[in-house]
Amino acid sequence: MSSPAGASPTGQGPVPAASLSGSCAMSASDIAAGVRSGELSALGVLEEHLSQVERWEPEVHAFNLVTADAARARAREVDAMVAKGKDPGPLAGVPVALKDLLCTRGVPTTCSSRILAGWRPPYDATVVKKVAEAGAVAVGKANMDEFAMGSSTEHSATGPTRNPHDLKRVPGGSSGGSAAAVAAGFSALALGSDTGGSIRQPAALCGVVGVKPTYGLVSRYGLVAFASSLDQIGPFGRSVADAALALDVISGHDELDSTSLPGDPPRAASRLGRGVEGLRVGVIAELAGAEGISPDVAAALDGAAQSLAASGAKVEEISVPSVRFGLSAYYMIAPAEASSNLARYDGVRYGFRSPGQDITEMYMATRSVGFGAEVKRRIMLGTYALSAGYYDAYYGKAQKVRTLIIRDFDSAYSSFDVLLAPTSPTVAFELGAKTADPLAMYLSDVCTIPSNLAGHPAMSVPFGKGECGLPIGVQVLAPALGEPVMFQVAEALEAAAPLGTGDPHGEEAK
Ligand code: GLN
What are φ and ψ of residue 224, in 5° steps? Predict the structure, then answer.
């Protein structure tokens, strides 16, 4: 850890709005338009972002690795294409942060774990390839909770990421580095992964937009697996339109992922600009009133529902009864899958090895030293849930709950186009506040987990500020492949958000 929890490394305040200037304050779509037309150079855009990183990264620690030289080389290539009259693509020159569990060829990929120290993947994840082919410039590998297990980015072997809005607080997790990078102006876009809320919850806490797509919409090829039936890659952006732009670049069938959906993907941006007149919006009663939802978050959700009603949507409360059991089912299924997925880290095939007298001792020493405490807790939980004699009572039962949740959502979507819920129960909490109490940490995802269990899309949009002037996110949920209507509603919320929260650094906070 670079400094004790609670204290910012140099005792500075939040990343100020004033430091977001030039292209660091621009949307991804404006950067791409500028670079494509030759008005902006990709290298110039990158240098501005790298200066912002140099100035603030010692405070924020959003990255495990900043790939400045490779980024400069890539930006020059993009500029050379434009000079030759070729179109680099819809993300031309856009700086992007990549969560450090996305494989990058020849570039260290650590999952913020000691056990992967020194490992360089021999290939790029499909999403990494896709954003590069669209003209984006990868600026670095973003910090995360080890193997994506956590809600605060404190379970990282490289130390915690700090929330750019308040350096004494967490950015959320597990994709906290990705969310913080976008909020701090280190990159216009970021990619993360969401197994139980790891894109949406940090997006909410950092005041940016974060999207978990429909399961199978985005290829998982090259995503280091946590819980394969739940994991999805998705984008972060400072606006709904930017998140749609990024999602449309990374979605689509991939024969390298056997769970990838066939056919043409829905276009996330296809219904932007249409308003919400006549749309049916259900507020999920069990999540709006869940234990632990703080009054500021409840008020923001009410405000969001009212704003949609004022724009012509039909808004009602709806019961989705089984979502109450989502958290319990998730903490059987996700650790069960993780215990199997993480069996491959044995000191032979990847990165780190701790020696032993014989191979069994070597395995044990490697895994004991290589994994952090939370990862070991999950492996033990999962191994127990899958053990003979307990399988039916734990894992089997959790799978039945999963089916009930899918049925309840299907029934809700027979009457509603989208559903609304809080994203995180509270605004960003202080570093260290939940590290000693795993259950308190797990409860951060009570509102986000149900969509993962169902395989449905959901996204978080900033909607006003809460306690201490910190950002609040509201969650829009949609049925499978309902991304277009989900973004349509998210855009209306963004437009109606109080106090101009489209700007994550709005001085108007409070
Ligand atoms: N916070 C949840 C967990 O710890 C979700 C993590 C995720 O979505 N990757 O499992």
Answer: -65, 125
- Interval between CA 271 and ligand 1 midpoint (Å): 30
Q: Is 322 in the pocket of ligand 1 (CB under 6 A)?
A: no
The structure tokens 């569990």 sit at 101
Pairing of strands 471-477, 418-422: antiparallel
Å from CA of 41 to ligand 1 middle: 38
Query: What distance in angstroms lies between residue 334's CA and the mean position of ligand 1's atoms?
Result: 9
The token pair at 420 is 């609304």
Task: List Cβ neighbours of 132 (8 Å cut-off, separation of 6 or more).
Answer: 74, 124, 138
397 is catalytic: no
Q: What is the pLDDT of residue 11?
A: 66
CB 157 less than 6 A from any atom of ligand 1: no
The DSSP string of 310-374 is: HTT-EEEEE--GGGGGHHHHHHHHHHHHHHHHGGG-SSSSSS-----SSHHHHHHHHHHHHS-HH
pLDDT digits (tens, 9 = 90+) for 217-252: 999 999 999 999 999 999 999 999 999 999 999 999
Residue pLDDT, tens place only, 250-264: 999 999 999 999 999
Residue in 149, 199, 226, 443 to alter for ligand 1 test, most ligand atoms within 8 A of Cβ: 149
Whether residue 63 contacts residue 72, with contact meaning beta carbons closer than 8 Å, is answered with: no
pTM of the model: 0.96
Q: Residue 10 has what pLDDT?
A: 63
Q: Which residues of the chain have pLDDT under 70?
A: 1-12, 17-19, 499-510
Peptide bond into 174 cis (omega under 30): yes
Q: Say which CATH architecture domain 26-320+411-490+493-497+502-506 belongs to.
A: Alpha-Beta Complex (3.90)
Q: Could you give the C-alpha distances from 469 to 56, 57, 102, 205, 463, in angstroms and in order?
A: 21, 22, 33, 11, 12
Backbone angles phi, psi at 206, to 5 degrees: -100, 0
Tell me the two tokens of residue 275.
Answer: 């308003």
Ligand 1 contact, 334 CB (< 6 A): yes
148 lines ligand 1 (CB under 6 A): yes
pLDDT computed for residue 385 by the predictor: 93
pLDDT at residue number 18? 61
Ligand 1, residues 99, 101, 170, 195: which to mutate, most atoms within 8 A of Cβ? 195
- Does residue 340 carry a catalytic annotation? no
Catalytic residue among 3, 174, 187, 444: 174
